[in-house]
Structure formats: structure tokens, C-alpha cells
Amino acid sequence: MTQSLPHPALAAADPELAALVGAEERLQADTLRLIPSENYVSTAVLEATGTVLQNKYSEGYAGRRYYEGQQNIDLVETLAVERAKAVFGVEHANVQPYSGSPANLAAYLAFARPGDTVMGMSLPMGGHLTHGWGVSATGTWFNGVQYGVRHDTARIDFDEVRDLARKERPKIIFCGGTAVPRTIDFAAFGEIAREVDAVLVADIAHIAGLVAGGAHPSPVPHADVISTTTHKTLRGPRGAMLMSRATHAKAIDKAVFPGLQGGPHNHTTAAIALALHEAAAPSFRDYAHAVVANAKALAEALLARGFDLVSGGTDNHLVLIDLTNKDVPGKVAAKALDRAGIVVNYNTVPFDPRKPFDPSGIRIGTPSLTSRGLGTDLMPQIAEWIDRGVTAAGKGDEEALAAVRGEVAELMARYPAPGLPIAG
């Protein structure tokens, strides 16, 4: 069992909170984290988020602030902006959005008005809440229409997307999502958006690191606006960015500030700049391709064990598993796997007959394990653990789950996680 290193100031000020931080360090070290939206940041990124930049208020943009004393902050933000432009090959970047959802809201504010029609992928089919889904503010303030996937392939039917766009004439079309295991055809979406005079927003929150590393096609030639978080596959802090063509720069910046936010989180901006610096290194390209290779290897190993994968596999970092043929609900499986030291999330699958809080599937991904250095040779072992865990979940076999938990911890001890202040 690993032990966390002390945080002296934190421990002295608040022992209870320090103990919880230490417990989380041990949990992240000892478990196999397969949630596709999670990752490990480097020690340098962790340090950047804890700098004295936390102390500074900076409403406005570089050179145009409402507070004085911005000599260093302006340079930090400019550094992040220029690195974003270089890594993604965009004309404009805004690094101030607090997270992915506010970034998407800024796109609405920039290009639509309440009551306008907007179009996005249906949440149960793999889309995101902020793509016009009903329970989101975006589905309340706007007329959200959704496209889905084909019954037979679980892939987007672009004839259907085009027909829906022609009928509804949306002001904004979102592409991307949270449970999309296949390559997003940005060119096809761009063609449809241009035909109906819609703004295309590519939400690449999940795949930003893959795009940066050349392991997924870029939306830049096709999308008017690109929205992304900076964690997940990009391995940065919990923040977000909006990128666009130069013609949309003013609208985007105005929507972020003063439209939706006050002062940016400068410590996060610094960590974004650092993460982009890391993403520009050749080693990051290797990482991005390894994420995809691991996901494909894991998918093949799961298929060999009789698991039903949505769309039959994956092209990216994410695998969506329909457990209907295993006769184990997704929530039951996810909670059992957690007890076995395998961290996943339960998830709806396309055309799921079960309710969202008790769905048929689980969602897994390979960003975190790839950051720890695990390779394709270990994916069959992980598939075996998942198989044993799901079988044990169906039988209520806690001893089997405990056995897997011990094996997982033993393997994780051989692959220390970057950024974790853990002593063996």
C-alpha cells in the first residue's frame, strides 16, 4: 500500500482536510482509473495551479484590464494564448473560460439569441448536456433539436443530420460529445453547417489531446469555433478554451468577458500555458497515439471476452460497453468494479431502454493508464479484470472483487502515476 507524502502547511492548518487529500492521493495511486474524462497532470502543472497567481484579479484581456498591476499576468495569458494558437493551428484563442460548460455558453451568447434553434447530438446518444439538451439551460433558453446515431451501426447518419438541419435551420450546430467512440467527421459537419448558414462549434473536450498529438483529425479547417476543456486527454488543469477564426475573435471575447465571467483564474491560465508547452513536445505526440492504441487493444480484448461494444469498437480513447448481454446493469457493474479498484462510470448506450440513473452501459477510456506508462501488452489483463468484475457483480461475489482489487493494486505499484506525491 502506498503512503502519501505530507503537506506540512495544509496538515498544520487543517489536519482533517489534509487527511482527505492524502486519502485521495492513495486512491489515485492504487486504482486503475478508466474514466475517459480523467487523467493525471504533471507535477509542474500541479505546481502552476498553486502559485501566487491565485492572488491576482485581472478582469479584461491583456493590455485592456480593469485592474492595475497586470505586468506579469498579461504575459502569462499571452503565453497561453500564443501556445494554444500554435498547438492547434488556430487564428484566435481565448483561455479564460472557467470550464467546458461556460465555454459552450459563451458560444451561444456570441452567435444566438434566446429562442433561436440550435442543434446538437442527443445526450443519450453520446452528446453533452450543453448541446441543447432539455434539462440544461441551453435547452431551456434555446430551441434545441437533436440528432442521433443509426440503430444498426451506432454511428452518425449524416443524411439524417443534413435533413434535420435543412428542416430546422439552426443558428448553431454542435458536433462532438462525451460518449462518442468513433472519429468525428468534422468535414461532413462543416459542409452541412455552411449549407444552412449555421455556425459550427466543434466541442473537442474529450479529444483535444488527441487532436494536439495528431491522433485524431483536427476540426480547424471546418469549424467556425472550437470549444474544449484543458484537462482530459490534454493533461492540463481543470479549465477551458475557445478557439476560432479571426473573424469571430471579437464576438467570442466579448461573450466570455464581460458576457459570462468576471476575472479569469490566473493560476489556471498559467497551468494551461504549461500544459500546452508539454503538448507541443514530441513525447506528447507519442502519448496521444499510445492512448488510441491502448483503447483499440482493450476493445479487442473485451470483444474476445464476449462484451458488446457500442459501434463495435473505438477509434479514439473511449470504449462504450453495453452490458445487456451480460445481464448486469451498468450501475451495478460500475459500483462493483470500483470495489475491485477499477474506476469507471455507468453510462447510457444508444437506444437504451433503461433510465439514465440506472443505464445499461459503462464508459471506459485509456488516458490515465497511458499516462502511467501501461501499454497494449497489458490491455488483455485489464479486460480480464473487467470480465471478472462484471461476473462477480452479477453473482454478488465480494471475494472475487477483493481478489481483483489486490491484483490491480500490485500492478499499479509498478507504474507510478505522474504528479502524485506518493512514496512507496
Description:
With 424 residues, the protein is an alpha/beta fold. It folds into two domains: 48-279, Aspartate Aminotransferase, domain 2; 291-415, Alpha-Beta Complex (Aspartate Aminotransferase, domain 1). Helix content is 44%, strand content 14%. The chain has a seven-stranded mixed sheet with strand order 5-11-10-9-8-6-7, sandwiched between helices. Helix 5 (100-111) packs across helix 10 (249-260) and helix 15 runs antiparallel to helix 16 (398-413). Pathway: One-carbon metabolism; tetrahydrofolate interconversion; Amino-acid biosynthesis; glycine biosynthesis; glycine from L-serine: step 1/1. One of its GO terms (biological process) is glycine biosynthetic process from serine. GO terms for molecular function: glycine hydroxymethyltransferase activity; methyltransferase activity; protein homodimerization activity; pyridoxal phosphate binding.
- The CATH topology annotation of the largest domain reads as Aspartate Aminotransferase, domain 2
Q: SS-based structural class? A: alpha/beta
Instruction: For the record, give the distance between the C-alpha atoms at the N and C termini, rounded to a whole number.
Output: 8 Å
pLDDT < 50 stretches: none
Biggest sheet layout: 7 strands, mixed
Name the CATH superfamily assignment of the largest domain: Type I PLP-dependent aspartate aminotransferase-like (Major domain)
Would you count the extended β strands for me? 17
Spatial sequence of strands, sheet with the most strands? 5-11-10-9-8-6-7
Going by CATH, the architecture of the largest domain would be 3-Layer(aba) Sandwich
**Global Rg:** 22 Å
